[in-house]
Design a protein that fits this description.
By secondary structure, the protein is mainly α. 74% of the residues lie in helices and 2% in strands. Strand 1 and strand 2 form a beta hairpin. It starts with a helix and ends with a helix.
């Protein structure tokens, strides 16, 4: 008990990750770094599970890196979650065939796990910012150590996104928090909450500054672009690490927007809207034939569902807000489990040097028990009753449709409608596989570790979904920490109101519609979806048209007023660059002479007639408005 209260187990886990990072110095093989990572992940899992029920407080590390840790139900849940994923990935890689840059990979892989553990465990905002930056750097190194040189453009875009929209807003937010608290050592979440009135700016700026890093880390619109590009090039067994880090973005949102800053409905609508837009990624997945990219878009969709639920929880509050909050956390957990099993299955194809595609999938699906388990994971992603996504979406829809809020209904129905495409996409893959991939494939034996890890992850995801009571006590503790509300039993959560039947009906209807769409011929399905696929083109063409008309009006009518352009040269100006060569027209008396003469005539005309005062004031107001407009255009 003494060890836990002094937080020595967290330090021990970080020490094993550090040992794994330098292990290739003694033997040039990345696999020697995996046993320490396994032990570190086990310790992480244990510390997180213990922290859900018993708070862990103390200080770890020393010197400049010394930091306070405080593990409660919320971050304990995500720490256990990280340890579970790290354990499975480390075991899987022991027998996975790849040739990374051994030293770089070991340092980056163990560094990613260690920095993520520090990010979740720390109670200090300064160390939170530091660990966020370490996560970005180590994940970049992990990507570069395992992909060929042609992936450097993707790596550059990823690090630019995480720096500009991730770490820079977080640094500004930390600086503002320090100005309010006045101490780096005491710069905790609780201290910030108690000193919000001392901020030099409005609290709304903190909402904005913390929102950007959370969205970037989770891969939510408009910062979702790195997800399909990184997942497509990264070895499949490493993708679950990035999916777990998406959960860190959800954790940051929960910790800041629910526990630290005042609850904001405006922020709730923002999160719900951004989550709803992210769900549209499933349409891109439907037309994608590269399996890793297909499931990457599904990942964007699932995180979008979680953020829609988080926004709904902020908007609703009370009992329905609690239900939506539980649905968001459950969906984050579920999507990591079933996506991990799917990418582990694709890794079995990569193990033999093949690119995972619709035809190479045949190697995996013939004659293996693993095929059944991966199919369970795929149908869990599709929300087929009674599997994972069905359970979490039940809670989310029940909360969203349990109110008279028109905006939530509109966004909820959009999410529910788009929820039919994952099942249609899976059935489409299966149908195309049977139609086009007729060649027989050899039944290669998948290594024991790969089969075991994939099977355990898929089976565990199935058990947690069918029997949510396994994690429900943890969720009750989290709800109390975030909202202060005591949550009832499992039946009370799933049957809060009569609209639970409506939510379940929507899910069954979505499953049926997805099954029908997935069985349609591809050309027929494409006709039905043409409006969605062409929506981006329609918007782009419309925008181009208006921009061209505005440009034409500026060059033809406004440019001669703003700049000194001879009339005979005006037809020669075709673009904005051509107009730069002409000097700007300055204000002079001659420009205003017509206006001055107009006022003189109005004055003489008014002197000859006895005008009504209301008419006189109205005329003066119109003339003044014209003058202001003219001055604005000329200046």
């Amino acid at each position: 008990m003494m060890a836990l209260t002094s937080s020595s187990l967290i330090s021990l886990a970080l020490a094993f990750f550090a040992l794994g990072a330098v292990a290739p110095l003694f033997r040039r093989d990345f696999r020697v770094s995996l046993p320490p990572a396994v032990i570190g992940s086990l310790l992480t899992l244990f510390v997180g599970a213990y922290g859900v029920y018993h708070e862990i407080e103390g200080e770890i590390l020393s010197g400049l890196l010394q930091t306070e840790v405080g593990i409660g139900p919320l971050n304990g849940f995500f720490i256990a979650f990280l340890g579970l994923v790290g354990l499975f990935v480390s075991l899987y890689l022991l027998h996975y065939d790849m040739e990374p840059r051994h030293m770089t990979f070991s340092l980056a892989y163990n560094g990613t796990l260690a920095s993520s553990l520090l990010f979740l465990a720390t109670d200090n905002l300064e160390k939170l910012t530091l660990s966020y930056e370490l996560m970005a750097v180590f994940t970049l190194a992990l990507f570069l150590s395992t992909v060929p040189k042609r992936g450097r453009v993707t790596a550059r875009n990823y690090i630019v996104l995480t720096q500009i929209f991730g770490i820079i807003p977080l640094l500004i937010a930390t600086s503002l928090a320090y100005s309010a608290v006045g101490s780096l050592h005491g710069l905790t979440f609780e201290a910030l909450r108690e000193n919000l009135d001392k901020l030099p700016v409005g609290v709304w700026l903190l909402y904005v500054l913390y929102l950007f890093p959370a969205l970037v880390r989770s891969g939510v619109f408009p910062f979702h672009t790195w997800v399909p590009r990184v997942y497509r090039r990264l070895p499949s067994p490493l993708v679950p690490i990035f999916i777990a880090l998406e959960g860190n973005g959800v954790y940051l949102s929960l910790r800041v927007f629910f526990e630290t800053l005042p609850v904001s409905q405006v922020l709730g609508y923002t999160l719900a809207f951004l989550g709803t837009v992210s769900v549209f990624a499933t349409l891109y997945s439907f037309k994608e034939i590269r399996l890793k990219t297909k499931f990457a878009y599904h990942s964007v969709m699932d995180v979008g569902v979680s953020y829609f639920a988080l926004g709904s929880a902020l908007i609703l509050g009370g009992e329905f807000g609690t239900v939506a909050l539980v649905g968001a956390i459950l969906h984050t957990l579920y999507q990591t489990l079933y996506k991990s099993a799917i990418f582990f299955g694709l890794g079995a194809i990569e193990h033999y040097g093949e690119e995972p595609n619709i035809c190479s999938l045949r190697k995996l699906l013939r004659g293996h028990v693993i095929a059944l388990l991966i199919s369970l994971s795929a149908f869990s992603m599709a929300g087929v009753p009674p599997l994972a996504a069905f359970v979490s979406k039940w809670l989310i829809y029940e909360a969203s449709f349990g109110t008279a809020n028109v905006y939530l209904w509109a966004m909820g129905l959009t999410v529910a409608f788009l929820g039919l495409f994952p099942l249609a996409s899976i059935l489409q893959v299966r149908r195309i596989n049977s139609l086009l991939c007729k060649r027989e494939v050899e039944r290669d034996e998948i290594p024991l570790y790969i089969r075991a890890v994939t099977g355990v992850v898929a089976f565990f995801g199935f058990l947690v979904a069918v029997f949510p009571l396994m994690v429900f006590p943890w969720l009750q503790h989290i709800v109390v920490e975030l909202t202060g509300l005591e949550m009832g039993g499992l039946s009370e959560a799933f049957f809060t109101d009569l609209n639970a039947g409506f939510a379940v009906s929507i899910l069954f209807l979505s499953t049926y519609a997805g099954w029908r769409l997935g069985r349609m011929p591809t050309d027929r399905a494409s006709e039905l979806l043409l409006i969605f696929y062409n929506m981006g083109d329609i918007l782009r063409f419309t925008t181009d048209f208006f921009l061209k008309e505005v440009k034409k009006a500026y060059l033809r009518y406004l440019l001669p007023v703003v700049k000194v352009v001879p009339k005979h040269e005006l037809p020669l100006i075709k673009d904005y660059d051509d107009a730069l060569d002409y000097p700007v027209r300055h204000l002079d008396e001659a420009m205003f002479m017509p206006l001055i003469r107009l006022f003189e005539r109005l004055a003489r005309w008014g002197g000859e007639r006895n005008l009504d005062m209301n008419a006189l004031i109205s005329g003066f107001a119109i003339a003044l408005a014209l003058l202001i407009a003219l001055l604005g255009v000329v200046s």
